[in-house]
Amino acid sequence: MSVTAAAGFRAAGVTAGLKESRRPDLALVVADGPAAAAGVFTRNRVQAAPVRLSRAAVADGCLRAVVLNSGGANACTGAGGAQDAAAMAGAVGSALGCAVDDVAVASTGLIGVRLPMPTVLAGIAQAVAALDRDGGGAAATAIMTTDRVSKESVARLDFAAGVVTIGGMAKGAGMLAPALATMLVVVTTDADVAAAHLDEALRAATARTFDRVDGDGCMSTNDTVLLLASGASEVSVAPGTPTWSDFVAGLTAVCADLALQLVDDAEGASKRIAVEVVGAYDEGQAVAAARSVARSALLKCAVHGEDPNWGRVLAALGTADADFEPDRVDVSFNGAPVCVGGVAAGDLAAARVALAPREITITIDLHAGTSTATVLTTDLTAAYVHENSAYST
Question: Would you name the residues annotated as active-site residues?
Answer without folding.
Answer: 182
